Amino acid sequence: MISYPIERWHHRYKDAIAAYKHAGDVFDRSRKSGDAVLIANAEDDFKAAKRAKDDLEIFKKGRIWARLCAFTNSYHRSSTTTTGTSRSSASSPATFGPCFE
User: At what angle do helices 4-33 and 63-83 cross, to 10 degrees?
Assistant: First the structure.
């Protein structure tokens, strides 16, 4: 179905946000411990999680995301007008998330 790329991005973004928050918590705890090696490792993990999150945010702000959303909207409209009803509940606008906000 056409909604899969959008749902896949949304799932990856949620995972990246969770990893970023977790890495931030670990980094804060490691700073409290005072162990230089632990702090350096936690800082590297935090930076990697931030890069992953930022990459997904840049993708969303870019032209590829806009084209994907436009194509999804177009496909959804054409499938609704062709059959008279939506082909499945997975193609309803509410499940696409960021494209329809």
Answer: 140
Give the burial string for 29-59 (b: 16+ CB within 10 Å, else e). ebeeeeeeeebeebeebbeebeebbeebeee
What is the sign of the dihedral through the CA atoms of 75, 81, 83 and 86? positive
Residue ranges of alpha helices (H) inside 1-101 are 4-33, 36-61, 63-83, 93-96
Q: What is the mean pLDDT of residues 71-81?
A: 68
The model carries a pTM of 0.64
Q: Which amino acid, one-letter code, is at 90?
A: A
86 φ/ψ angles, rounded to the nearest 5 degrees:
-65, 145
Q: How far apart are CA 29 and CA 11, in angstroms?
A: 27
